Design the sequence.
């Protein structure tokens, strides 16, 4: 019961978020960021002419990155009200099939080369059915690529954000947006200090957050505080997610020392 409530509320939270933050301009939606996300396991060229799905597409920035990488066809899955924004935002709609369903309802195509799920599974309380659906939709030898919040490397951040989230996940938009505005300015200062001091999350601050526009930095803060459910994975848990789903040759990378990229292959 609790799992269902969380699931519905998280999808509702994202629907509201993405109806307010609709574009993916700048570095936030760039192929440069996509290359950084999929490093060191993949390069954008690896998806050229491939049949691909993305689970949890939000407003479509990853779908557009996959199109720029040359994917032949993309299945874009988004269960929330962001679906209408997603459909509007895509550059080559003839190459995309849009599905307003939850990840676990992904049809068992059995012929997909890659499935991506970036920033999604850590917002699902029971992600195993989504991993199982991805397994069924891939062709034998196809790959499932996942990006997750990490626990390791986030100790100080989590000590601050967890107590804050108890309150912020219940706030209405205008109050949360005001709080984000207050937090934005210290974050600008923090990034500056990261140039001189070995502060927590320094790698992420300098390689990613500093390259974002002020608008997107605010969105990223909002995105941390808004969703009802967010889990920070240990390395063990992140690998287990895919190994429990029968994936093999699982590889994991501690991206910028604060998050996990995991890739697994469906056995041939
Ligand atoms: C943080 S956003 C990431 C969006 C996109 N992947 C990106 O990186 O821009 C997480 C998305 O996952 C979607 N989501 C939440 N629960 C889901 C589920 N059970 N199945 C599929 N998508 C889900 C949300 O609606 C939201 O759009």
Sequence:
């Amino acid at each position: 019961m609790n799992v269902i409530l969380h699931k519905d509320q998280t999808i509702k939270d994202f629907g509201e978020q993405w109806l307010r933050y609709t574009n993916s301009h700048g570095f936030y939606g760039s192929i440069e960021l996509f290359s950084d996300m999929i490093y060191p396991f993949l390069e954008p060229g690896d998806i050229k002419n491939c049949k691909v799905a993305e689970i949890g597409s939000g407003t479509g920035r990853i779908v557009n990155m996959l199109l720029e990488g040359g994917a032949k066809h993309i299945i874009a899955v988004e269960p929330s009200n962001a679906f209408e924004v997603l459909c509007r935002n895509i550059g080559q709609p003839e190459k995309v099939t849009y599905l307003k369903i939850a990840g676990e309802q992904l049809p068992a195509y059995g012929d997909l080369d890659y499935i991506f799920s970036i920033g999604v599974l850590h917002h699902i309380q029971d992600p195993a059915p989504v991993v199982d659906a991805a397994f069924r939709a891939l062709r034998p030898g196809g790959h499932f690529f996942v990006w997750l919040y990490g626990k390791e490397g986030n100790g100080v951040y989590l000590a601050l954000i967890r107590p804050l989230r108890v309150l912020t996940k219940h706030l209405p938009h205008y109050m949360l947006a005001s709080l984000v505005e207050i937090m934005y300015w210290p974050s600008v200062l923090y990034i500056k200090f990261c140039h001189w001091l070995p502060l927590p999350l320094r790698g992420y601050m300098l390689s990613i957050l500093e390259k974002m526009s002020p608008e997107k930095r605010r969105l990223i803060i909002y995105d941390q505080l808004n969703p009802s459910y967010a889990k920070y994975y240990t390395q063990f848990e992140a690998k287990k997610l895919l190994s429990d789903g029968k994936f093999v040759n699982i590889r994991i990378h501690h991206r910028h020392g604060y998050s996990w990229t995991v890739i697994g292959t469906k056995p041939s």
User: Anything to note?
Assistant: The chain has a mean pLDDT of 96. The first helix runs from residue 2 to 20. The pocket of S-adenosylmethionine is lined by residues 10-11, 14, 18, 55-58, 61-62, 77-80, 82, 102-103, 118-120, 123-124, 130, 223 (CB under 6 Å). The radius of gyration is 18 Å.
